[in-house]
Amino acid sequence: MRFWLSLTLSLVAATASAQAPEVTPRGPLWDEERATIELFEAARDSVVSITTEAQVVDAFGLRRFREEAGGGSGFIWDDRGHVVTNDHVIAQASGATVLLADGRSLRARLVGRAPDHDLAVLRIDPAGLPASLPLGTSNDLRVGQKVFAIGNPFGLDWTLTTGIVSALDRELPVGPRLTIRGVIQTDAAINPGNSGGPLLDSAGRLIGVNTAIYSPSGASAGIGFAVPASTVRRVVPQLIERGRYAPPTIGIRYDPMLNSAAARQGVVGVVILAVDPGSPAAAAGLQPATRGLGGGVVPGDVIVGADGTLVETGDDLAAVLDTRAPGETVTLSILRDGQVRDVAVRLAPGG
Fold it and tell me: Which of 70, 105, 265, 328 has the fewest C-beta atoms under 10 angstroms from its C-beta?
């Protein structure tokens, strides 16, 4: 009896001595922590998860069915139910479903695509949708400023990662002959599934759309890219209105092969082959090339610059025009009769 009583007392004493120490109350959150929490809670409901489907045919071609093809992220653009995401998220899909933060799952309809800028717009039922994200600017970003990415990496929905703007004005290839210019580089973790989600500044404003990572392993390696808000602001309204994006035009025709041949002769720039009647170029008095007596091309005006940017190829000219809106004026530097002169041209809507 004494043995069991002694053993019981020993166990009680051991249990008492093995108890965890008291929990220490934490102090108030740091100001930076509070700001990050508030930013996430304010933006979370405006971010969506997108699941895509592909139509599959069985091995005998007798039965068609749908299966999940992939997914990504997106965000509410307006109160009409438009959702912005990356084009590569939905490019190969036959259908898409949008999951809201409140748990609702809504079928989506494709509104428009802009593969050149890796942007796409879907539309869902607008009833009861959360507010859209405030739209910010990207042309005044500074390397080193804080940024926040919200998305659904690896299917882990509504994930927040933070970092800084690590570089600006990057070029991101999105196809064999397509390159997005002016891209934001960030070290905020961006992984598969983050594509199409928003990149926010410290005020919670949309400054970019997360689109890609640079990683040999396929996982975040500290280098991610986002389509800048300046591009999103130009492209998305056209996708909603017209289903496609067409940059503004000056109304000229040129040939890359002719430009290359002229460059070998020491004439570097865009040789104007033709000027469309009634176009901005015609109104500005731009002169096209003509045929010589021997049938060769005699250059007229050669565009060597646009808004202070050197123009050597048609891609260089298109990149400048793509940053402008119809109705704005672009200053072209024209080589004519051996002299460079500046000509103001008012941009027209693209075809």
Answer: 265
Q: Which of 98, 122, 118 is nearest to 110 (CA)?
A: 122
Q: How far is CA 5 from CA 1, 2, 10, 18, 200, in A?
A: 6, 5, 9, 20, 66
Catalytic residue among 46, 73, 88, 322: 88
What does residue 36 show for φ and ψ, rounded to 5 degrees?
-65, -45
Active site residue 88: yes
Q: Does the annotation count 215 as an active-site position?
A: no
Question: What are the per-10-residue average pLDDT scores of the chain (351 residues)?
Answer: 52 61 89 95 96 68 58 95 96 90 95 94 96 93 96 87 94 73 90 91 97 64 87 93 91 85 85 92 92 73 93 87 89 93 93 72
CA 247 to chain CA centroid, nearest Å: 16
Q: Which of 66, 62, 48 is nearest to 157 (CA)?
A: 48
pTM, two decimal places: 0.81
Is residue 336 within 8 Å of residue 285, measured between CB atoms?
Answer: no
Examine the residue annotation and report whether 166 is marked as an active-site residue of this protein: no
H/E stretch holding 343 reads strand 339-346
Which pLDDT belongs to residue 112? 96
Active-site annotation holder among 73, 138, 195, 230: 195
Whether the CB-CB separation of 279 and 308 falls below 8 Å is answered with no
Query: What Rg, from alpha-carbon coordinates, does the chain have?
Result: 28
Question: What is the dihedral sign for C-alpha 148, 72, 115, 82?
Answer: negative
d(Cα 3, Cα 198) in Å, to the nearest integer?
69
CB within 8 A of 266, min separation 6: which ones? none
In the set 118, 187, 301, 322, the catalytic residue is: 118
Taking phi over 0 as left and psi of -120 to 50 as alpha, with beta for the rest, 109 belongs to beta
- Distance separating alpha carbons of residues 52 and 69, to the nearest angstrom: 5
285: alpha, beta or left, given left = phi > 0 and alpha = psi -120 to 50? left
- Please report the DSSP string for 221-259 in residue order: -S-EEEEEHHHHHHHHHHHHHHSS----B--EE--HHHH
